[in-house]
Description:
The complex is a heterotrimer of chains A (201), B (259) and C (66). Chain B has 259 residues and is α/β, with parallel strands linked by helices. In chain B, 35% of the residues lie in helices and 15% in strands. In chain B, the strands form three sheets. In chain B, strands 5-4-3-10-9 form a five-stranded parallel sheet. The mean pLDDT of chain B is 96. Chain C is mostly beta strands and 66 residues long. Chain C has one helix at residues 18-25, and strands spanning 2-5, 8-11, 33-36, 39-40, 56-64. The termini of chain C are far apart. Chain C is built from one helix and five strands; from the N terminus they run ββαβββ. The mean pLDDT of chain C is 93. Chain C has a five-stranded mixed sheet, with no helix packed on it. Chains B and C meet through β4 and α2 of B and β3 and β5 of C.
Amino acid sequence: MGALSLCLVTDRHATRGRDLVAVVGECVEAGLRLVQVREKDLSPAALLALCRPIRELTRRAGARLFVNSNVEVALEVGADGIHCPHALVIVPEDAPGLSVAVSVHRPEEAIDAQKDGAEFVVFGPVYDTPAKRAFGPPQGVERLAEAVRAVSIPVFAIGGVTTARVPEVRAAGTAGVAVISAILSADSPALATRRFLEALG
Amino acid sequence: MDNPLVLGGREFRSRLIVGTGKYASNEIMRDAIEASGAEIVTVAVRRVSLPGSGQSILDFVDPKRYTLLPNTAGCYTADEAVRTAYLAREAGLGDLVKLEVIGDARTLFPDVQGLLEATKTLAREGFTVLPYTNDDPVLARRLQDAGAAAVMPLGAPIGSGLGIRNPYNIKIILEGVTVPVIVDAGVGTASDAAVAMELGCDGVLMNTAIAGAKDPVPMATAMRLAVEAGRLAFKAGRIPKKLYATASSPLEGVPDWAP
Amino acid sequence: MQITVNGQAMEVEDGLSLEALLARLGVRREFTAVAVNREIAPKSAYPRTRLRDGDRLEIVHPMGGG
Lengths: 201, 259, 66
């Protein structure tokens, strides 16, 4: 079994007051190779301003950058891809030169995403997580495994994933894990990144 | 000169917040809001009637003049309330939100669990959350801890006009939290608003009391005066309550009328 | 394909963008927002958001309320 991938999804409200770009920089230095800039509440201009330095530091380390929903910003900074929710999917032809990753909550949505040309999907929330508690109970590992079986593109697990849970999601067949606060809110995001990479390796 | 009401880092002179619902006409609504002196005005988020662009309430409530406070009225779960808040923000209505998560259709009392959950989620995401809550001081503390920018305990059920049913709880809430306390719901007439302010509340929010009055525009004026009067009285420091009389006129020097 | 807009069923052409639908419905840009299948559609993404069969849209704006 090969190593699983690690994706950091950003949330500038989850850094416990630290500068997001600096924290992402620390994680990339610690070995992170895939970043998704989410920040759904930023204006396009502010999103662009945030993505520029993140593109710089990811580019230098050979890490991939996905930008949430805004194709113009993704193209402007030279991102590797665009990430969108299943409900608002963007098809590759509308995102020229960019890969498309899709967030899904059900196996059926993963199938749709593959049909729509997604490179990979992010399935969740697998476990209980404060950020998603308001939206209902988590999907669970069984559903994650169903989603993995339903498609041939990589499926990442998101939502309450910790290093302790990696064996379980690995057994479900995921290609990787996506995390937010497990890294961003940690005392040392760099150390948390290294711990994840060890567990996933 | 009173210090301002501070919500989400913004300062407001008026401590009266008014709603825009249930008015007989948009013109009366506009005039009543003007008479109330309110700077913050609540709105609901509802489906556009299609096809397209009919009249908008914002043709009568100038968003450049008033601070809009979108509410999540009609939401019974945290999920619904959070999504409604997102919609309101995307619609350009700002990031202040009057958070309602309703637990019961007849009383419109809040669903406490849902309210706390939604407060946490929205506060994390940068909203200035003003939760409509009940008069439980423990819940008020929890809401503050969850990141609420103020707490808004009801005086009585929405639209009931029963006034401040439990002033003692409101006082305890005032002692227990550091964020502004704004009585929201239940005000029936001017004295209710004055009572809320005399207790030490930082503001009062009302809709039906003005919109449903026989004559909303003078009632709006009355409410403005009541909030100001109650605030002045609170700051001036009332006399204590006593069971027996203490004469106001001196006891010495009373003329002797005995024959 | 069939979509639902504010509770009403509608027949529209495949691959219609959200931008085009809103223009067709005469929806004002200012002070309105759209959710597609419960997800808020960012305004900047309207032109590239393609609707699909079965999508449920909510188009909202502020109205009177307390």
